[in-house]
């Protein structure tokens, strides 16, 4: 696996930073190895788990925490687990803490940096320079920490450094912590609480100790949390008011691991290393110290540039969008690799997650994907059914959501197999013989796959639609089908998709099985969904046990779901008759500046026809967040159905959401969701869940490589069918495919058809035939420029409250076939409450709303929709903000008389605006200047529409091309 | 139920206070009603649960807490649930919080007071007077709060009061909080997290809202925790830096309930009331407000003195020990009543707890005890077996420890029945017909009891000892008998006791059943224990599945258990042959200044013969704490076996432990344990568990009434057989018995036998015959003075390290039949670690050790034991401390030459003392002055003992009477 030096260098510089602990307080980085995973935020709060074999903790909150899966939008608080260093200037007795908590004091300089293998804080405060670094051990669930300090004042000051490593409330049965002088270590021991005798044997051999050890003998120590904290609190702990720590153990008291190191500083950095992690008994400390303290020192002795190349950086892109490149080159494959490398650090990954995560691994470590396929199919039932989770450890059992019966696990098998074969051409896997969970009879992988497909096909109702049980891909959709009658349109479409893929594989890889029955089933499935679930403009989500269609236009909430539309396209229902309506419907109802919501409007109360999803907070998780996994399906469907421009636009929306201030995360992973409910809770929309376990990563990686850049294997060949819009510009791609190095240069130029040159010779078609291991391929790809598209138009309808903006705006949009945006709908709940009480918003309060309006309108225009926006627009400045986003803009100002306005406001119901605000509005109204290209009319009644259309005739007719 | 006014007045003044939030930081009070229970500590931290029907919370920690039973020594931390009020002086912007947290600032004056129905803080700070009061609603799970403020400076300052009521992390599914202006309330709503469809129906109807409402419309509010707290932390929250709160709701964010009330203060108190609690939906707020805000105002408008008499104050004592009286009169019956009134707020009380708690209710509300008996026996199996828990709610199920099979539940039935019959003479209960859990055939209560006894008797091994299963009274003793072979000596003795009681009831209440078979079984049981479990000086605890006796002198840990000794006496094995040895053994091995440990030495590692108890932290809970329930059995056995003096001494030790600084609690309840492991972890011994759920209360109440004051019903009569030592002095007792009012005056005087006068007439024997409801009985009881006892002697053996103190002291004690106390054994672990490193202790560090030594020696002397104490005693001041505790004291100073000392110290192993300290010891040695009554000898070898005994002949021979 020799690589060019140049290439390695390019890969080693991945890093993302923030320069304040307050701008994105929960921004975090994650690290993992085969034994553990941790998530550390910029303030030093930390969540870590290690496997023994089930996920366990070695540092806790100060009360008994529930054992659950990872939580979205995890809350941090003063005593949250974390790793902190108090710094005390011995002369002045001034104290602060790094990285930030628990003192939470503004620091002179702060930089938090995530790199793939290391987390770094660089801090300057009160003339001290402090670098703090975190890595993980390679082969143990241990944290390696280094703090290095220098004095910038030239006074060679003395400091004390107190490492404050939380341990928390470990157990009500037994918890103790003490210092072991022979090993310079603090070791806490506990007994995991249990009551049942049957739990003892498995607990007996687990690690029930946590240690902290240091490269340097501490000058004092404390293992007793309360005695250290004292009365005031962690921001000003009693323990560091004295010269030394109290050397106090914890005897059935909340333990902690604190060491004091005194140092005399100079401008040269002094370093201390720490190793922290779980162990089985204190007696192990001697050997742990011996091995890991030196490994820890060594880990920090190499500089960033010396790091080994990362095995997952197989696809490297250079385009004009550096942010895009950075994420696609470094962070996305890292996230993909994490999932497949450690299977989300569970012992029973959900079958669907396990298979999809390994779609990503096909590009990075195909052997894992092969193993995944075989292991999964060995746990298949002889009936063809797949279990809800795949056990990947001998002691594992199905837990949490894997105890709920789901209906979709079979359909992911051909989808993974497709990518695996395309990436490897390893057709031997097809003939691999495998037994079943409940039968020792061995059958080939081909037969296993066919059994799986037949099993899903057998679970259909009289209409030919697939039963949903207690959830399909959507876990909490648990009340649609528990009686055994409810069906899922999505699952029916997903089954069709799986069959479509299988037929393709049988053909492309020359599998010797007939496909005509499957082809017939595929048509049946498509027809069933079209016949029973088409709602006129989109597909419904399913039919309940009580035979009620849902996810349809007559629903008040959950009117439209994203997945049935995406998968209708994937399943081959992509004729323009359906596609154009679905696209328009999705863009109108589900699109937000942070991506497409999974459903809308979000449920605000329990709908017992549908279940648990409707109880989740509106805009969170499956209840209408921008659930990126579903959004990725949509993007994939855009590319596969010939809508590459829209696909790339959507993809960039996903990445820009990740970068946004609102998300509050570092752009180093795609979260499982951004908050949705954009028109219901606009103020929180776009927030990241901060959870990096998501099927999104694998799909987006696949989309970029196979669809956007069109690099797709088939048999012995690599096809090149890029779908890059010319707006993306020329690109330089290096891609390692089947151990061949491909260097692809894409250029847009004066060509009518794509042209491919391989190692200086024109290719006869768009592929590398018979790709050879170890070979280097220099490709030059010429692409034609896209056709210029017309530029969409923006019409602003402004005026004081009651002027008739909404009525007129809506009517106008209808006439023009434009999208209508009701400005008031984007006000935050708090602002609405305020205005309802008759208080005008301040400019500061109005700013986020204007920003949302701008963002929303710009997005619709970018997607090519003429757009009508109604909003007050009293100030020229506000109007200018909106007009700045588009070349083709027209302003309509409604100005009825004050008496008419009063009358209208008093008679209207259900609107939050208080009539008392009218006077203040009229006072602040700045009538448009001539330069604003304005039509002023005196009312907003329906009959004004014709008049307006007439007046705007020229504007409407104008065709401005979209220039780059 | 008419009462004398005088009496009522006496009862209404119960209160206990502390004057600092730091002396006992976790000191707490508890309140309950039929719907809820709460425990609030002096700093404002609070734990509350309400029943729906299972115990639920309405305020949480900021992370997902596990659902468990109450934890001992509960840890508090910055973001722990609590109710706090920030006070901001509007002029100076100074902020502090009451009662103490979260600002945790030293307050000018602080008083925290628990009364039976109210918790009160009285605070003065910066010229403000602030009273804070908490009560519970009568018929709803609501907290009533009142804050009242006055300005003491005469400046009529303006303040803002911010009520900070925590809500915490309510759910990962859905959590939201908002202000409802029409109801002046903040309501938080959440969806209890669940995944299984089957959990939905029962969750559906639970209260999933928490509200805060106030008597006065707030000037501003905040329902969004993070936005209020800001960056710095709760000690300096961002939310109160601004003029008003931000009126911000929480949308899937950690909620909180904060209201701002602005006030202009004067010297006259201004009041604001708050109601806080769970509800089902925000729509209920109008009716909740209407009813409860006025009830809340009313609740605080009456003064303490106007409170209604408390129904549980049926026994009122006036003796010379006011602390004793206060606890027995007010707090103990309150604790007893709490247990029986709400059954520990569980829906499935453990059978043994339920029956024993109702032993207490026999004195306070006998109807509850009757109900308990009948309900329990209806859930008996037809085999006679009792279930592990009694379900007291239709939706209840057996949880936690009730899922572990225990073997003792039957034996508590006759014990409860005895007290019930003695208190009520309600013999009708005996003939009550009842069915079974698994059979509809009805049998009389007599038959049920006999079935229960036969069932326990049937579960014995070939030796006649009772099988222990996975635990008898000791829950975590789960590995003695899981194979079905292990037996419990305690259970065998308890069975004997139960049979003994049953035979007594059959005789005294003339039940028409034969008892000869039971009498035979009783003798069998006694003999089996004597034959198989007597270890020479005490009874073993049991025999394991593998036929190993444990709880015996050859065990290194868990050598002696308290319960087998107590119950041997109760079971009638009380001949002097056994009793004197058991008493001496218990006092020598289990006695601590905080009460008797349940076992000793505490286990420091898992013993797989015995089980989970050995994994608990040494000195906590069942692993050798002063487990008060067991200690109460011991005290009961002292009284019933004619050791009333010792019984009272032990009882007062229990109460004084509750008062001690070390316990850290208010003396308003007996905790389930004080930390034990007195010689293993002396520094933490005596700490209260702060848990008030314990069988202790009922037993101690029974002991005081039936044993100490000898007020015991039998048939129609009330017997008076007090066992009060004359040291207790004259007593005045008012007792409500079967609705008769008894006024008993006890006087010690010149009489040889007890004399009883009833309503002015001499009684023919010591009873009121045929006690009549509504009657008043004035009793005068003359008792003779106790015989004077000899006063025990104290010998101190002092000298530098290596002088031979221990060797000589131990030998001396043996010769004299005295108790030996090794001073070094009472050093804290930290002190030992320090000395082992060659660092001398400071006077401050030595002080707690000296106090322990003093306490320990004084206790042995009080129990009548001659006592030899070895300790360095280098300083005259330290020796004086020890000598001050006893009249008869002798000091022996060992003074060998320095060279001998060096040699000895270097050759001895396994002792912590560092030889380097010798010089420092010799330097600080102050040789005794003549006034110290000293023998100075030059060595500590065995052959010195004879010489010493000779020299001390007069001292040893002297018989000093114990004067009061």
UniProtKB/TrEMBL annotation, chains A, B:
One GO biological process term: carbohydrate metabolic process
CDD domains: GntK
Organism, scientific name: Brumicola blandensis
Catalytic function, reaction form: D-gluconate + ATP = 6-phospho-D-gluconate + ADP + H(+)
Name of a matching Pfam family: Glyco_hydro_94
Family from the record: Belongs to the gluconokinase GntK/GntV family.
Protein name: gluconokinase
Domain Glycosyl hydrolase 94 supersandwich span(s) in chain numbering: 80-291
GO molecular function: ATP binding; carbohydrate binding; gluconokinase activity; glycosyltransferase activity
Alphabetical UniProt keywords: ATP-binding, Glycosyltransferase, Kinase, Nucleotide-binding, Transferase
EC number: 2.7.1.12
Domain of life of the source: Bacteria
Classification via InterPro entries: 6-hairpin_glycosidase_sf (IPR008928), 6hp_glycosidase-like_sf (IPR012341), Gal_mutarotase_sf_dom (IPR011013), GH65_N (IPR037018), GH94_catalytic (IPR033432), GH94_Enzymes (IPR052047), Glyco_hydrolase_94_b-supersand (IPR010383), P-loop_NTPase (IPR027417)
Domain Glycosyl hydrolase 94 catalytic: 313-710
Pathway in which the depicted protein is active: Carbohydrate acid metabolism
